[in-house]
Amino acid sequence: TALQVGAVFPIALATLVSVILVMRWRHAEELSETLTQTEGLAQEVSELDSATYRWIMTGSPESEALWRKRSDKMGEILGEMKTSEPLASVRLTSLRDTWARSGMVFAKLVDIRGAKPAAERFSLSPQEQNLIQDILDQIKNMILDCARLANASQAGAMTSQREVDLAIAAWLGILALVMSAVTLIGGRRLIQRFETVKTGIGAIADGKLDHNLVISGNDELDDMLHLFNRMGRQLKESQD
């Protein structure tokens, strides 16, 4: 039974390694998806920056529509992005907040410019200048947050992989020790029983039919030793 139980350890080890490798694969998949989305997000932020300058220069309905289109696309990407890394999650939250603020500032700028007479729309008031600077600063912050998000995702994935590798090494070490201990103890016990049987066979061969084997356990091998002692008694009774 001990040997059969010992045969389970390699199966358990293979299962454990498979599970851990699947975990690593999922982390790699998540990182790849996050980096792809971050790359697309950075591109949209860059396009939004260009659209902002275009609207400042022209103030046309087309440039306003373009700005909103780029902003909406950013919102879609931000809504789809998910991450399990704590630091990357903080960066993602910061991006969403900055994106929301930029939309409010832009809406305020559009309202201010729309309320002015057509001849005065290209003369910027101090309030408009401050708002324009605010939205440009927010776009710069979004560009920085995109880079920070990518770095945080990579760092988090590397940390997770190191933890998984450490878990693999630890479990492999534990299972190896257990397997070695089971094999060593079972092997020694098996050898001792065979030595006992060998001694009994030698005693019976020498005519000592009343020789009893010492039995110290209660497993399959002990059952065999009981049968051996019974055989010796029956042989002695038959001889008598």
What does this structure look like?
The chain is an all-alpha fold and 240 residues long. 86% of the residues lie in helices and 0% in strands. It is built from 6 helices and no strands. The chain starts with a helix and ends with a helix. The mean pLDDT is 81.
Number of helices: 6
Q: Which consecutive residue ranges, at least 5 long each, have pLDDT under 50?
A: none
Give the biggest sheet: none
- By secondary-structure content and strand pairing, the structural class works out as mainly alpha
**CA distance, first residue to last residue:** 38 Å
**Helix-strand pattern:** HHHHHH
Average pLDDT over all residues: 81
- The Rg value, from CA coordinates, equals 39 Å
**Mass-distribution shape:** rod-shaped
The count of strands amounts to 0
Any chance you could write out the topology, listing elements then pairs?
Blueprint: H1 2-6, H2 8-58, H3 61-80, H4 86-115, H5 126-205, H6 220-239
Helix pairs in contact: 2-3, 2-5, 3-4, 4-5, 5-6
Brief write-up:
Helix content is 86%, strand content 0%. It has helices at residues 2-6, 8-58, 61-80, 86-115, 126-205, 220-239.
Any key phrases for this structure?
240 residues, mainly alpha
